[in-house]
Structures are given as structure tokens and as C-alpha cells.
Design brief:
Layout (H helix, E strand, L loop, with lengths): L1 E5 L2 E5 L5 H8 L6 E3 L5 H4 L6 H7 L3 E5 L1 H10 L17 E5 L4 E3 L2 E10 L2 E10 L2 E6 L7 H7 L4 E5 L12 H11 L3 E5 L7 H7 L4 E3 L9
Parallel strand pairs: 2-3, 3-4, 4-5, 9-10, 10-11, 11-12
Antiparallel strand pairs: 1-2, 6-7, 7-8, 8-9
Amino acid sequence: SAWLQAGGLSLVVDTSPDFREQALRQRIPRVDAVLFTHSHADHIFGFDDLRRFNTIQNQKLPAYASPETVADLRRIFDYVEKGEELPGLYRPKVDFVEVRGRFQIGSVSVTPLPVEHGPKTTLAYRIECSGRTVGYAPDCKAIGPDAIAMLKGVDVMVLDALRHKPHPTHLSLDESVEYLRRIGAGRSFIIHMCHDLDHQEAQNRLPDKMFVSCDGLVLEW
């Protein structure tokens, strides 16, 4: 998961299985909206832990995703919208919003960008607020020219880089570096590394202004 503070809002991207631990560690005080990139288990299985924020804030949370991902979320977590309210029934309360183009959350502008994740299409996001921009693409194998054009020159870019060896659904380190060069962000960070990628060895191979991420990393953007 990623937590973004911008325009006085608290936004979360994906609810990974360890979302609860992440929220506690980072002391996330509230969630104003959730953006989903896709419906693979490692990006959604912390979904139930959104319910604590329902209780704290006493409101439903908007959850933005592609129509395909919304359909998957409704199928996998079908109890969210089914049945009557019962005492003791503690489930997330969300309003699913199908993303079909650029949208606004308060003063934060969000542009969804379809990218290839093997046979599946996932969403990367370009997020802008107060003239600052960040690109976020956690799971992808290929980024098309239109998406690259939208991401070009963002202040911060966060991109998939699974391992050294090519993979059918994720970018390798070298592939990721090539895309990051084309995007030309002010600073770039690779994520989604597996155990094959040694942190320091990978960092030593990266060009200037490109960095290996770690759990709990905090960025000013």
C-alpha cells in the first residue's frame, strides 16, 4: 500500500494484506479515499481493515478503481453490499467509483493510466496537487507511449522492478531503469522487489536520482 497526504487529504493506494500493520506503523489518522490499481490478492486483501476508518470517521469511504477491478472487489468482498445492517456485523462501508478518466478528489487531480501487467491491464496513477506531481505504477510489464507522455517529468515516480531476470508480468530492474530514463522524473523509486534483488547491490547499479525503496519509506514531494 501507499499513503499519500496532499491538499489536506489522506489517500491510500491499494489495501495490501499488511495494510493494518502499515496503518498502525505510520499512524494514519484517517482515510479520505482509496485508489485501487488492480485486484490481485497482494493489493486488496487488507480491504476489511478499512472498516476501522469507517468507525473513526463515521462515514463511508469512496473507493476508486477500473470497472473490471470494481467488479472483482464486489465479487470477492460480496458481503460489503449484501444484506441488512445487523448488530455486531462489522464490515467495510465503501462507495465503489468506476474510474473511466481523470477525476478530482478535493484539490487533488488523479489521472488513471492503463499499463500492462502480463495479460492483465492495471492502473498506474498520475497524481497532482498544488503544482506537484507523483506517478505510481506498482505492477506492470509495459508502459505505453500515452502513459509515458502523461508521466514525463513528474516530480516523483514510483515504479515496479521485481528482479534482475526478466519476468512475464513484472519489469526487471534494467527494464524499469529504461522506463524511468524515458519518464525523466525529478526523483525515481523502484518498488515490488523480490528476494532475488539485494538492496545495496541494486542501489549501486542505479543511475543518479534513482533509488531502491524500503518498507516505511517517507517522501516529501
